[in-house]
Structures are given as C-alpha cells and as structure tokens.
C-alpha cells in the first residue's frame, strides 16, 4: 500500500515511525506462529532422516533374519588350473578330481576353392541330426560366408587365402568353427540342399580331398575317485562343472595328471561382516537420535549461559524408538544373552559387536549362532517395521501429525497477513485524519492570533 506522506504535515509527529512501531507490536503473534512453523519443519526433517535410517535397518534386518543369511562358504583348489566357486547351498567338504580333458568346439577347413558350388546352398547338420539349410545370394565365397554367419546354424565362417590354382585364379578355404563347445555341438557342412543330404547326394565339404578337421568337438571331463572301484567320469559341454558339489561350481583350464583337491569351508569372516553390518545400521539410528536429543550450553553476548535442547530433546516418540530398537537387539535368546554371540549393549545406550567372540561362537556352533542371529534380526525387523512402516509406522504417524500442524499454522500465518494489512491501513487513515484536524486547528489558531493582534493594535 502506498504511504500517505503524513510525517509532520500538521502535527510535526513522526507518524510513519509511530505506525511502524505499532505494527511491530501487532506482528508479534504472527512472528510467534512463524517460529512455530520453523521449529515444526525442522522436527519433520529430522524425523524423516530418522525414518530413513530405521527403514534401512528394517530392510537389512529382514535379510539377515533369513535362515541361510550366514551361510557363506569359500571354495579352494590345489591347482591353478582348477577354480572353484561356492554359491548358495554350498556345504563344507572336499573332493579330489583329475581333469581328463577340456571342452572345445569343432573347427575345420574346406579344400581350396574359388567359388561355392552352384546353386549356392549350404546345409549344416548338427550332432542331433537337425539340418539348417542356408541359401547365399550368390556362389561367391563372400556371400557364402555372410549367409553362414547370419544363420542360426551355430557355425561361424571365415574366408582364408589359399594360393592360386593351375590357371592362376586366387583360391580360398572356408574355416568353419562351431560357436559352442562340447560334443553335442559337432556339425557337418554340406554343399547342397537338405533334400540332397537326405538323398545322400550332397557333398560333405569338410571330408573332401584337401579339406581337414582342425579340431573335433569335445566335452570337458573330470574323474572322481580315479583309480578306485568307484571311479566316475563327469562331462560338461563347457569347462565349467556346475554343482560338482552342492552349491559349488568348478572351472578347469588344463588337464591334470595328479588329483586336484577341491575344498569347501565356511567363510566365517563374511558371516561376521554380515552381523557387524546389522549392528552398525542399528547404531547409526541410535546415534542419530542421541545427537539430536543432547542438550548444549553456550553463552550469549553478555556472557550469560544459554542452554539449548536438540530437536528430539524431550520427545517421547523418539525415546520410544530407541527403547524398542535396543530391546529388540539386547533381549535374551532362549535364555542366552546376545553378548554370547558378540552383540552387547553399552553403558552409553548403543550396541557393540565383538567379531572375535562371534567368530569363536560361530565356529563352535554354527547352527545355534545362526538361529540366535535369526531371532535377533527378526525382532529388529519387526520393531523397525512398526516404527517406519509407510502407512502406520510410529515415526511415519508422527511426521504426518506434525506436518498437519505445520499446515494449520501456515494457514494462520496467511490470515495474519490480511489482518495486519487491514490494521496498518486503519492506522494510516487514523493518523491522516489526525493531521487534517491538526491542520484545521492550526489555521484557526493563526486566525485567532491575527484577530488578537489587530485588537491589541487598535487599543494601543
């Protein structure tokens, strides 16, 4: 609103300053409301941070509570040519194997030629008897190579220079290689249609004079208990033997004359890391609460002490969060304290993890410790879900309620804006009228003064 330019017009009073002072007093209730909005907004932000930490704890706890959460195993071998990998379902143990052969794909070359036979039809028959008939755009070897490589026959073709024929024409061989290893991926290549193959009139281009087999298709093989009555040969189309032992895959890269020992043992270090991560996640939530609940003391400009509480200081909901999480982690399991598994509550209200103690207990009784950790993690998951659930969680409800308060306060602040604007306009009108009246009175005073002066002059 435009000012009326009232300052000292008739009265000499600083009316603008007077109005500003009065408005400052009128604004106090709105300022208090704004402060409440700021405080509540800070609380919501802090609660959202806490909710995120508790939700993360819930997710981790639920994972750790699964029955096989601590089933980690290491697999090793006594040879650099044998690599063992333990996955889900592995169990401890060892076995000796002798690597008899490595898997390989078939490869062969045709006799030298200047062009494919006419018509340019190729039929590739797999080891399973399935025939794939391929027709090239022409009988040029480039078109034949392109046609084979673009087919689904599982064979790749490469044109390789091979000198010249008696007439001086440049010749080439086609190298034909299987895309997959293993005996079941062997193939035969014919010049001719599938019908010609069936009739026995097609030419096997890898069996012609001048052609050669570079490599036969072959499975990898390992022998268990070699030299015993229980000797057993296991084959694989690749160099990897999946689940050679339960949950253990073995990859071979060379044959061996002597037995190679594949051993599988528990990976206690990774199991301990899993439990440690759970305790760390819990402590992150507890530390977050503690930091924002602490009371700090400082001094103002005069040196007087100022005691300030954190955003969570005195908040019963947040105290309940700490209480429930600590109870879930520290209560006994079947009469035994979690400290027996390396999980202990401290004097400062946090949890600590003793890796050495956990590892010793886990090595002694894996099943018992797994059950205890499952129980503790399950309790934490339930508690955290009750606190951070997106719909009915305690923290979520607190956030929703505080946000509603913020909305209501913000509405009140907006209404105060209108109220203060009206009040200021009224003050401006009041002082404007006051100046008008003062101006009239000044005029009357001037006239009266002039009349008195005139009478006095006549008398003299």
Widest sheet: strand order?
1-16-3-12-13
What is the overall number of helices?
Answer: 8
From the spread of the alpha carbons, the general shape counts as: elongated
Give unreliable regions as ranges.
none
Proportion of β residues? 15-25%
Average pLDDT rating: 93
Q: How many β strands by DSSP?
A: 20
User: What is the alpha-carbon Rg in Å?
Assistant: 45 Å
Portion in helices? 40-55%
Largest sheet: 5 strands, antiparallel
User: Roughly how many Å apart are the termini?
Assistant: 55 Å
Structural class: alpha+beta
> What is the element string, with H for helices and E for strands?
HEEEEEEHEEEHEEEEEEEHEEHEEHHH
The overall number of domains is 3
What features would you highlight for this structure?
about 450 residues; alpha+beta; 3 domains; about 25% strand; FliD_C
Structural account:
The protein is an alpha+beta fold and 460 residues long. The protein has three domains: 1-72 and 267-295 and 305-450; 73-102 and 220-266, no CATH class; 107-215, no CATH class. The chain is built from eight helices and 20 strands. The strands form six sheets. Strands 1-16-3-12-13 form a five-stranded antiparallel β-sheet, with no helix packed on it. Strands 7-8-4-11 form a four-stranded antiparallel β-sheet, covered by helices on one side. It has a four-stranded antiparallel β-sheet with strand order 6-5-9-10. The longest helix has 66 residues, at 394-459. 26% of the residues are buried. The mean pLDDT is 93. It is found in: Secreted; Bacterial flagellum. Residues 11-106 form the Flagellar hook-associated protein 2 N-terminal domain.
């Amino acid at each position: 609103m435009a000012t009326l330019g009232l300052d000292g017009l008739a009265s000499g009073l600083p009316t603008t300053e007077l109005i500003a002072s009065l408005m400052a007093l009128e604004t106090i209730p709105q300022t208090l409301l704004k402060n409440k909005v700021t405080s509540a907004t800070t609380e919501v932000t802090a609660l959202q941070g806490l909710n995120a930490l508790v939700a993360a704890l819930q997710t981790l706890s639920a994972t750790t509570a699964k029955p096989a959460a601590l089933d980690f195993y290491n697999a090793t071998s006594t040879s650099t040519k044998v690599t063992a990998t333990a996955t889900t379902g592995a169990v401890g143990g060892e076995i000796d194997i002798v690597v008899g052969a490595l898997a390989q794909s078939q490869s062969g070359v045709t006799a030298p030629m200047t062009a494919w036979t006419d018509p340019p039809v190729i039929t590739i028959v797999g080891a399973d008897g399935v025939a794939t008939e391929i027709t090239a755009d022409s009988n040029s070897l480039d078109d034949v190579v392109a046609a084979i490589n673009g087919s689904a026959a599982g064979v790749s073709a490469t044109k390789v220079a091979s000198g010249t024929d008696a007439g001086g024409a440049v010749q080439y061989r086609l190298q034909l290689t299987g895309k997959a290893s293993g005996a079941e991926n062997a193939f035969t290549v014919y010049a001719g249609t599938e019908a010609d193959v069936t009739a026995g009139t097609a030419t096997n281009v890898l069996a012609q004079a001048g052609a050669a087999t570079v490599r036969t298709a072959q499975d990898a093989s390992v022998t268990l208990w070699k030299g015993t009555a229980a000797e057993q040969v296991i084959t694989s189309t690749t160099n990897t033997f999946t689940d050679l032992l339960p949950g253990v895959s073995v990859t071979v890269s060379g044959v061996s004359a002597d037995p190679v020992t594949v051993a599988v043992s528990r990976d206690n270090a990774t199991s301990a890391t899993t439990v440690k991560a759970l305790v760390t996640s819990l402590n992150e939530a507890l530390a977050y609460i503690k930091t924002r609940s602490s009371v700090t003391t400082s001094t103002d400009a005069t040196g007087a002490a100022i005691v300030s509480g954190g955003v969570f200081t005195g908040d019963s909901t947040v105290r309940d969060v700490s209480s429930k999480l600590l109870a879930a982690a520290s209560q006994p399991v079947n009469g035994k304290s979690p400290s027996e598994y390396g999980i202990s509550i401290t004097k400062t209200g946090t949890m600590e993890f003793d890796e050495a103690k956990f590892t010793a207990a886990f090595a002694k009784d894996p099943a018992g410790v797994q059950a205890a950790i499952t129980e503790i993690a399950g309790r934490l998951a339930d508690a955290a879900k009750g606190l951070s659930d997106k719909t009915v969680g305690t923290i979520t409800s607190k956030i929703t309620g505080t946000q509603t308060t913020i909305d209501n306060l913000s509405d009140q602040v907006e209404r105060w804006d209108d109220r203060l604007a009206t009040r200021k306009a009224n003050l401006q009108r009041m002082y404007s009228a006051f100046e008008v009246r003062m101006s009239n009175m000044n005029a009357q005073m001037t006239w009266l003064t002039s009349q008195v002066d005139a009478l006095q002059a006549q008398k003299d």
